[in-house]
């Protein structure tokens, strides 16, 4: 009770709400501490989705079922999570056709599905640094280096840019380790992880550093030179290496594991890929 100039102000009713809010805050902090401990101890996430409530239309599900092989590898429960994530991704992004390209449901679903496939093992799957998906009919002229590109990630404009023609080639040929969608989404994922300090970002960076350290091992370097498993473009720089690594991991996991088992395990842990036979 507070007395000011003869007036009585009673604040006792506020106390339970303040204590309740304080208690919830303490529980949240404790949960986050436990979540981080669990991730560091077991090198995996405590959970990925608290709520699964969004779904796709029948037509959109048909596209996934008929045209996206990864979806067919998932269990019924995992399929519902994947559908929720694809629907949430679509709601979160603007898909824009360039050079008079009409954006179709097939384009939206397949591009969103590739992005969500790469982040299916993560908590944060929407690519915070991407607001726009720009789709060209084919290779496009880019002002970044005055040349024609099949795809690019522009963090300044928060845009992922794709040639639909080349996206389809990469997506439909599933065993050549060339996948434009995976490659460009991986670039966005790398920068997102580098700029964030959440569990997903920290786990990504930890495994990323393990991969880089492995690349300094002379025995591995000799084997890379001998086998020549990864295409030459992978060795342009460390970011291109990680993008190419993701293409090989998704498209030919068995060959990847056979040739370079330790790199495979680091990549699997980096993406938290404990499903669909990986």
From TrEMBL:
It comes from the Bacteria. Gene3D superfamilies: Glucose-regulated metallo-peptidase M90, N-terminal domain. It holds the Pfam family Peptidase_M90. The chain crosses the membrane at residues 14-34. Keywords: Membrane, Transmembrane, Transmembrane helix. InterPro entries: MtfA_fam (IPR010384), MtfA_N (IPR042252). CDD domains: Peptidase_M90-like (cd20170). This is Zinc-dependent peptidase.
């Amino acid at each position: 009770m507070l007395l000011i100039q003869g007036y009585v102000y009673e604040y006792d009713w506020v106390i339970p709400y303040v204590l309740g809010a304080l208690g919830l805050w303490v529980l949240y902090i404790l949960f986050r501490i436990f979540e981080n401990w669990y991730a560091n101890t077991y090198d995996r996430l405590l959970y990925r989705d608290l709520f699964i409530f969004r779904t796709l239309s029948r037509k959109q599900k048909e596209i996934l079922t008929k045209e996206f092989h990864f979806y067919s590898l998932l269990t019924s429960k995992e399929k519902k999570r994947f559908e929720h994530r694809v629907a949430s991704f679509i709601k979160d992004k603007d898909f824009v056709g360039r050079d008079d390209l009409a954006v179709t449901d097939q384009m939206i679903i397949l591009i969103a599905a590739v992005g969500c496939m790469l982040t299916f093992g993560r908590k944060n799957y929407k690519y915070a640094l991407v607001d726009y998906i720009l789709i060209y009919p084919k290779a496009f002229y880019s002002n970044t280096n005055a040349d024609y590109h099949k795809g690019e990630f522009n963090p300044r404009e928060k845009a992922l840019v794709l040639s639909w023609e080349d996206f389809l080639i990469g997506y439909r040929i599933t065993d050549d380790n060339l996948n434009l969608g995976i490659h460009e989404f991986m670039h966005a994922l790398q920068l997102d992880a580098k700029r964030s300090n959440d569990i997903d970002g920290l786990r990504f960076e930890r495994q990323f550093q393990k991969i880089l350290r492995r690349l300094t091992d002379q025995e591995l370097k000799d084997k890379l030179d001998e086998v020549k498993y990864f295409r030459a473009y992978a060795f342009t720089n460390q970011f291109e290496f990680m993008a190419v690594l993701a293409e090989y991991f998704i498209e030919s996991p068995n060959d990847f594991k056979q040739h370079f088992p330790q790199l495979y395990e680091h990549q699997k842990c980096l993406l938290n890929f404990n499903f669909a036979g990986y």
